[in-house]
């Protein structure tokens, strides 16, 4: 994180890429492909919508949508069943006291997701999940997060529909604006986690991790808090052509975290944290080598980015690594394979 922070923005709205047969077979093999009673297109049949405001009365960019009574009778039980598929492998006996409390729709962003609020009628506790249009690059992002990060990811796919769990945590922009002024001890831990998160994103080429695309999970510890930053948006997995797009510290939305790191972490300590994270990723690669091999074999032949972006990233990473390994790359999967090999090989004793 030695370069001067600046914003690096996507060149244009991201394309959607279909799930090829090989990737569908992978999803079936690893129990990600499940027959669903509801498709994304079914949720588009709402009658009207109202803006969803937060507790301060500000627009959240989400719309609460409403359906005909006949539509709700068919739709809501199916949505509860999908929640059961995510959390109890479809066992609905434990879900009889659950119901759909609200459906929200967001037109901001690439995936235009529906967010389903499920409420427990016994104690008014609630949870969420999301229904989106299936996109190959997003699926690669979810799988790589599941395999290479310290987090496990719940999602299922069916045809053109993608179901994702809600990832809990404080939105990064809210955290930065309201929770960053804590003790020095906690701030140092925050800086350490941001360095490690920055490294995780770069190693697996997950882009666009500005503050509103990640959450901060805060866990009280014996002294102070422990922090973990988790990505919540995987649309920009190996898509853009600029190396800096895969480094969260280049986004202006994250400048406060960058400046905090410059205050509390010197270069030697930063490199230590980077090496620690790369070592952990290398261990996860070894533990899940068969699954990762299956995934990367498909990603290397899949088209998930325009040709000009692939060429641009190959040149950029070739110059960064001072390597000719990227000259033959014609897909993002090939670039990611070479990039991970170079980075993780350096972590070996």
Distance between the termini: 23 Å
Strand order of the largest sheet: 1-2-3-4-5-7-6
pLDDT < 50 runs, ≥5 residues = 2-7
Mean pLDDT: 92
Number of helices: 10
Strand content: 15-25%
Quick one: biggest sheet?
7 strands, antiparallel
Q: Whole-number radius of gyration?
A: 21 Å
Order of helices and strands: HEEHEEEHEEEHHEEHHHHH
Shape: globular
DSSP strand tally: 10
Q: Helix proportion of residues, in percent?
A: 40-55%
- Derived from helix and strand composition plus strand pairing, the structural class reads alpha+beta
Number of domains: 2
Structure write-up:
By secondary structure, the chain is an alpha+beta fold. Helix content is about 40%, strand content about 20%. The chain has 2 domains: about 110 residues, no CATH class; about 180 residues. It is globular and about 60 Å long. About 35% of the residues are buried.
Features of this protein?
single chain; 349 residues; alpha+beta; 2 domains; 7-stranded antiparallel beta sheet; 3-stranded antiparallel beta sheet; 10 helices; 40% helix; 18% strand; disordered N terminus
Topology:
Layout: H1 21-29, E1 48-53, E2 59-66, H2 69-88, E3 98-106, E4 114-120, E5 126-133, H3 136-148, E6 155-158, E7 161-165, E8 170-171, H4 172-178, H5 184-203, E9 214-220, E10 225-231, H6 255-264, H7 267-287, H8 289-299, H9 307-321, H10 332-345
Antiparallel strand pairs: 1-2, 2-3, 3-4, 4-5, 5-7, 6-7, 8-9, 9-10
Helix pairs in contact: 3-8, 5-6, 5-7, 8-10, 9-10
What's the short story on this structure?
Helices cover 40% and strands 18% of the residues.
């Amino acid at each position: 994180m030695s370069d001067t922070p600046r914003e690096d923005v996507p060149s244009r709205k991201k394309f959607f890429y279909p799930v090829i047969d090989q990737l569908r077979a992978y999803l079936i093999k690893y129990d990600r492909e499940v027959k669903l009673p509801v498709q994304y297109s079914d949720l588009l049949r709402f009658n009207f919508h109202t803006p969803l405001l937060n507790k301060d009365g500000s627009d959240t960019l989400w719309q609460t949508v409403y359906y005909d009574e006949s539509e709700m009778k068919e739709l809501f039980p199916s949505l509860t069943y999908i929640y059961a598929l995510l959390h109890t492998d479809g066992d609905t006996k434990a879900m009889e006291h659950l119901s759909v409390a609200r459906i929200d729709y967001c037109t901001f962003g690439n995936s235009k997701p529906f967010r389903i609020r499920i409420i427990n009628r016994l104690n008014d506790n609630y949870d969420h999940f999301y229904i989106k249009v299936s996109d190959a690059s997003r699926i690669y992002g979810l799988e790589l997060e599941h395999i290479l990060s310290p987090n496990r990811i719940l999602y299922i796919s069916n045809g053109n529909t993608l179901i994702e769990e809600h990832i809990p945590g404080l939105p990064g922009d809210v955290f930065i604006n309201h929770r960053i002024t804590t003790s020095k001890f906690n701030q140092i831990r925050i800086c350490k986690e941001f360095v490690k998160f920055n490294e995780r994103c770069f190693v697996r080429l997950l882009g666009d991790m500005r503050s509103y695309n990640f959450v901060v999970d805060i866990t009280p510890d014996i002294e102070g808090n422990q922090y973990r930053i988790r990505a919540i948006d995987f649309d920009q997995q190996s898509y853009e052509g600029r190396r800096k797009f895969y480094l969260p510290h280049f986004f202006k939305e994250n400048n406060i975290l960058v400046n905090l790191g410059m205050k509390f972490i010197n270069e030697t300590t930063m490199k230590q944290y980077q090496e620690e994270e790369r070592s952990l990723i290398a261990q996860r690669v070894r533990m899940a080598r068969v699954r990762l091999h299956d995934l990367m074999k498909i990603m290397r032949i899949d088209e998930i980015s325009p040709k000009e972006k692939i060429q641009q990233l190959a040149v950029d990473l070739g110059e960064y690594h001072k390597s000719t390994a990227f000259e033959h790359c014609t897909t993002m999967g090939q670039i990611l394979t070479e990039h991970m090999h170079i980075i993780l090989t350096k972590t070996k004793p």
